[in-house]
Amino acid sequence: MRRLILVVLSLSVVVLFIFQGFHRSFPVPMADTGAVSESSIQSITAALDEIYYNVDIMGVEDATASRLKEDFGVDPSIFSEVHGRYTDGRFGIADVLVVKPAPGKGAAVREALITIRTARTSLFKNFNIYDSTTLAENGLIYNRGDYMVLLMIEDASGVREILDEYIPD
Q: How far is CA 120 from the centre of its chain?
């Protein structure tokens, strides 16, 4: 009887270790059906899911206009859409922001993205985890279609390729 209990407990521990990596922030990729999504929001969400599927940094959170205001002091009225994810900074940096400027607010959005990049650089100058200072300093800001993108993540060129697939130019 003790052996049976020991075997069951051992299997339970093995199962827990196997499934601990499955978290709602890291969805399992679905088979590619070849269908093109009409919704830009769904496309951007799919791109973010693909980008963050292999990101091992903990503390990744969804970006919203209100969160950007709380964390960086950015005026949320300059955005018509905010997508992305960024880290809380305790375990490094893996930030991808995709924002659509409100009409006539393109310059303000670019300044806001520069402000965010500068704030992240300042944060990581105090404690440089996994070369986060360099990633923040070299953060890439560029336009893609109607969106402006800020990348502060390892393999930014690979992330850019993924975004280029999902966001039409």
A: 14
What is the number of other CB atoms lying within 10 angstroms of the CB of residue 66?
Answer: 10
How large is the average pLDDT for residues 147-159? 89
pTM of the predicted model, to two decimals? 0.71
- The DSSP element (H or E) to which 82 belongs, if any, is strand 79-87
pLDDT for position 148: 94
Euclidean distance between CA atoms 16 and 12, whole angstroms:
6
CA distance 78 to 105: 6
In a 10 Å sphere around its CB, with 0-12 CB exposed, 13-18 middle and 19+ buried, how is residue 32 labelled? exposed
Confidence of residue 103 (pLDDT cuts 50, 70, 90): very high
Amino acid at 106: G
CA distance 58 to 79: 27
CA pair distance 131, 133, nearest whole angstrom: 6
